[in-house]
Write a structure and sequence with these properties.
heterodimer; A: 475 residues; mainly alpha; Formate dehydrogenase/DMSO reductase fold; two-stranded antiparallel ribbon; two-stranded antiparallel sheet; 18 helices; 4 strands; globular; B: 175 residues; alpha+beta; Alpha-Beta Plaits; 2 domains; four-stranded antiparallel β-sheet; 43% helix
Chain lengths: 475, 175
């Protein structure tokens, strides 16, 4: 007997499996109650919330100081030196771009496939994309060193005949990330309009003024809805190739060079799959924390955690496969410098990082195969955080680890991050969490209109004695 | 000249709304005089309204085409206007130009989708409009604009017969 049927409720001989009873889209709450279930927690901020805000803001401010210190004293204080020219900054940049990928994955891909379980979690995922890209976007500014000259990358006619080199992958990077940030932010905002209208109608004071401006006068007329849905459909289709191209381009920053370990055709695939793996894991962690912090158990149920856990597991298996495909080719190629890099990872000075990566990534993949694990918020939190530690280390090994060795052995070296680079990296983590926390209290975290719309699609019917959910094709 | 009025009624569900709209159409009220406001999207024509013409896909295609031209101009034309000689490399290469052109095509497609839909749904618009805040509580509002005054009674009766509530001559409110 399956797990779900073993825990049933009998009522007049009808069997209602627990899975069916617990489905969000079968809720019988009124629209008003649903509105309040979302708006209520947004206005509750206890001492714990403000303590976290102060601590995160302090870390962020310290990071800004470190950045200022670096600007004043020069780039050398970051610890970046020959041969590791791309250290913590580019590692963290790749990590944040990776995190941003789950938003599109969850929102756009699942929207196209009409996966209804996505409904309450799409906004959280889209917001994660936007904030992660903001943090990623800081690193090119930080990494150029002379940040005040960054406008030289903008193509505009000038009397010095400075013109961006469009053959440079760094130029592709800037344009691709800007495109993805613009696309993700507009996608997030567009789907927000109806909920901002709902928040406006149920608010007073400064919140009313804020939502009134942000809602842009949204009413919810029939043509308005129809056009909005058309636009969201177009966005979902357009944003997917953008999201695939962004991480491909980030990987080409590395792969188009002749650096050993980087020059590989499998890099775009490894980056994309790794990005989805780490992004979905970050989403899993965030959902558990927001669910606990805002008491959103009503919207973010175990069915959603379960499904996110499944996606993390599947993405993890793909990542493992691509990683192994990359390894086996390098292994049999047996090029001296690659052999040295692999030796460093398996039994040399990078071995602690390598084994951390493998354990932190592979153990969650195995454990997430179990339904009970996926449905346990605390276990899901621990495992998804573990994946993100693993994926950060993976990026570190790819970016900085590979640079330790090259074709000229006299040019081999070491890398030690300094307090400056670590502070700046910490700044982006604190900034991400801080902005995300403030977002959850200002903007309806759950797309309430999508949940209400989902209810229109969902119902139940009897198959024999068992009540099963049915989906009506209404959109 | 016939005197016209505006009329608004609230309904609890979609079936009652569509039934009331059928009766209102029979009074000779045109589609462009009727506005249905709801808190969720309903399938097209579910409420008995006519097909909504959406220009958005054409706007997006036009935007993408402009982006394509702009991207191609930047990546393949401008390097010849501002030549940078890098150890004998060609001034512009096909694959890098393809990447830049592709990204700008997508960027302009995204931006034109956003601007296009805002233009199509007529926002931002902060002027006073016919609206009822009970819509966010799940009710559907039917607004009849420019209704001949002599049809007010019949329209009110049509709404009442299908469970219409709070039927009134509405005031425009600030959203």
């Amino acid at each position: 007997m399956s797990d779900s049927v073993s825990r049933i409720k009998k009522s007049d001989g009808i069997i209602i499996p627990e899975d069916v009873r617990d489905q969000l889209l079968l809720t019988t709450l009124s629209d008003d109650e649903l509105n309040q279930k979302m708006l209520g927690p947004m206005q509750k901020t206890g001492p714990m919330f403000w303590t976290a805000v102060v601590v995160l803001a302090a870390i962020f401010a310290w990071g800004l100081y470190a950045w200022g210190y670096q600007i004043y004293w020069g780039f050398g204080v970051s610890g970046i030196n020959r041969p590791v020219y791309w250290g913590m900054y580019i590692t963290t940049f790749v990590f944040w771009v990776g995190i941003s990928h789950a938003g599109t994955m969850i929102s756009a891909v699942l929207r196209i496939f009409k996966a209804d379980w996505r409904r309450p979690i799409t906004r959280g995922a889209e917001a994660m994309t936007a904030f992660a890209l903001m943090m990623a976007g800081l690193f090119p500014l930080i990494h150029v060193g002379r940040v005040w000259k960054v406008y030289w990358m903008i193509p505009y006619p000038n009397n010095r005949h400075l013109w961006p080199n469009f053959q440079s992958p760094l130029m592709w990077d800037m344009i691709a990330i800007t495109t993805y940030l613009v696309g993700s932010s507009l996608y997030l905002y567009l789907a927000l309009l109806p909920d901002l209208g709902m928040a406006r109608d149920n608010s007073t004071g400064w919140r009313y003024k804020l939502y009134r401006i942000l809602a842009l006068g949204w009413r919810g007329t029939e043509p308005g809805w129809h056009k909005l849905e058309t636009a969201l459909g177009i966005f979902a289709i357009v944003i997917i190739p953008v999201f695939l191209s962004v991480h491909s381009i980030v990987s080409w920053d590395f792969a188009v060079t002749s650096q050993p370990g980087w020059h590989s055709t499998i890099y775009p695939l490894l980056f994309i799959i790794g990005a989805i793996f780490s992004g979905l894991s970050a989403l899993g962690s965030i959902l558990v924390v927001v669910r606990w912090g805002m008491k959103l158990d009503f919207f973010l149920r175990k069915e959603h955690l379960d499904n996110v856990g499944k996606l993390v597991m599947v993405a993890g298996l793909f990542w493992l496969y691509i990683w192994f495909a990359s390894l086996i080719v390098n292994w049999y190629g047996n090029m001296p410098v690659i052999r040295e890099l692999m030796h460093d990872e398996f039994s040399g000075e990078m071995a602690p990082f390598f084994y951390t990566m493998m354990i932190a990534n592979v153990v969650p993949i195995i454990l997430l195969m179990f339904r009970r694990v996926r449905r346990s918020p605390i276990l899901l939190l621990i495992l998804t955080l573990s994946v993100n530690v693993g994926m950060y280390v993976e990026r570190f090994l790819l970016v900085s680890g590979s640079l330790l060795r090259n074709y000229l052995p006299f040019n081999w070296g070491q890398f030690r991050p300094t307090w400056v680079s670590l502070s700046i990296v910490a700044m982006t983590f604190a900034g991400f969490i801080l902005f995300y926390m403030l977002f959850t209290r200002l903007i309806p975290y759950v797309p309430v209109w999508e949940v209400k719309q989902g209810r229109l699609r969902y119902g139940t019917r009897l198959v024999g004695r068992v009540q099963v959910p049915t989906i009506t094709q209404v959109d | 000249m016939t005197k016209t009025i505006n009329l608004m009624g609230l309904f609890d569900d979609d079936k009652a709304t569509s039934a009331a709209l059928d009766d209102i159409y029979e009074l000779g009220v045109r589609d462009d005089q009727i506005t249905v406001i709801s808190s969720i999207p309903y399938p097209e024509q579910a409420l008995g309204r006519h097909h909504v013409w959406v220009r958005l896909p054409f706007i997006v295609l036009a935007g993408a085409f402009v982006g394509f031209l702009f991207g191609y101009f930047l990546s393949a034309i401008t390097p010849r206007l501002y030549p940078i000689n890098v150890s004998g490399h060609p001034l512009s290469g096909g694959p890098p130009a393809a990447i830049i052109t592709y990204i700008f095509t997508m960027l302009f497609a995204v931006i034109s989708t956003f601007i296009g839909v805002l233009w199509e749904i007529d926002v931002p618009g902060f002027e006073k409009k016919f609206y009822d805040r009970k819509v966010t509580s799940g009710q559907l509002a039917v607004v009849l604009e420019g209704l001949p005054a002599d049809k007010e009674k019949a329209a009110t009766a049509a709404m009442t017969a299908h469970g219409g509530q709070d039927i009134r001559r509405p005031e425009k409110i600030t959203l």
